[in-house]
């Protein structure tokens, strides 16, 4: 196992990843979007072609770029808009009519 991979396995919090890769961040963005940032980062990693063929320095640089891109997504947008988690994807496709909500209210006599 490479040194970089060993170091990455020790990280868990979004702040740890951002600090490790030297990506500047606003704590207020991370407080709201920490899991979303990491999920998007791992999505970008899975989509990235040729990571296995890079040396550690180039892998570090590429991963840093992907993490900065993932973080940037949530600087410009919100978790609800980005919909990286299935629950948010499903919620976007559902709607509730006003009439159906009215039917759930107790009857007033």
User: Per DSSP, what share of the residues sits in E-state strands of 2 or more residues?
Assistant: under 5%
Largest sheet, strands/sense/barrel = none
- Report the principal-axis shape: elongated
What structural class do helix, strand and pairing data support?
mainly alpha
State the order of secondary-structure elements, H for helix, E for strand.
HHHHHHH
Distance, first to last CA: 71 Å
Radius of gyration, in angstroms, nearest whole number = 20 Å
Summed up:
This protein has 109 residues and is an all-alpha fold. The chain has helices at 3-9, 14-21, 27-47, 56-76, 79-82, 86-92, 98-104. Helix 3 packs across helix 4 (56-76).
Provide an overview of this structure.
The model has no long low-confidence stretch (mean pLDDT 83). The N and C termini lie far apart (71 Å). The longest helix is centred in the middle third of the chain and has 21 residues, at 27-47. It is built from 7 helices and no strands. The chain is 69% helix and 0% strand. Helix 3 (27-47) packs across helix 4. It has 109 residues and is mostly helical.
């Amino acid at each position: 196992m490479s040194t970089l991979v060993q170091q990455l396995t020790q990280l868990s919090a979004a702040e740890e990843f951002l600090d490790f890769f030297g990506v500047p961040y606003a704590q207020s963005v991370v407080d709201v979007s920490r899991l979303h940032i990491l999920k998007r980062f791992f999505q970008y990693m899975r989509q990235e072609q040729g990571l296995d063929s890079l040396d550690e320095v180039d892998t570090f640089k590429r991963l840093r770029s992907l993490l900065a891109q993932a973080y940037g997504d949530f600087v410009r947008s919100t978790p609800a808009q980005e919909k990286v988690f299935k629950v948010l994807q499903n919620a976007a496709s559902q709607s509730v009519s006003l009439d159906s909500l009215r039917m759930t209210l107790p009857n007033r006599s």
